[in-house]
Structures are given as structure tokens and as C-alpha cells.
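Hey, quick one: can you model this chain's 3D structure?
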Amino acid sequence: MREEGWEIYRPEEDRQGSEWQAAYDAWHEFTRARLEQAEQQRRDALVEIRTEVWLSADTSRRVRALCEQTGLTPERLLAQLADHARLTGNGTATVAVAPFTPN
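Sure thing. Here's the predicted structure for all 103 residues.
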């Protein structure tokens, strides 16, 4: 800059510095977005339940048949059934699920 005759630094005329700053700003925004996405995934994972379920042969056949008819995966079918299950007033779970359309 001195070689070019600058007496004081003028950021608006510093092409190289402006390019570096733009690259840094883009990197910083990308990194911030990635961190935000990772944090959201972490928060989402805290409320998820992942489980492995062992079902009897008869129950497994019924689940498979329902999956074939609805086009759902076993995981999605069981999740939707759980969404529709209800607790009774005395704290026991009802097994009779009201009719619903799987999606």
C-alpha cells in the first residue's frame, strides 16, 4: 500500500483485503449455518426414541401385512399407532386405537 502511495489505509480501495474479508465472511456464515444445523439435530435427537422391538411371529405377520397394505415401514407404522394410543384416567394404556388413516 505504501508502494502505491497510500498515506492512510482505505478499506474501500483495498481490493485484496476486501476479497479476503468477503471469503472470510462467506466461510463464517457457512460455518455458523452448519453449527446451527448440528445444534438443531442434537436438540431433535434428545426428543427421539430409538428402539428395537421383538414381536411374536403372529404379531410380526400382522405388522408386515399392514405395512404392505399401507406402504409404510414397520417403524413408521408403529410410530403412527403409538401416536394414536391413549392413556386412561387410571394410568393404564388403551390398546383400542381409534380408526385413522396411516400416512
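One thing worth noting: The chain has three helices and no strands.
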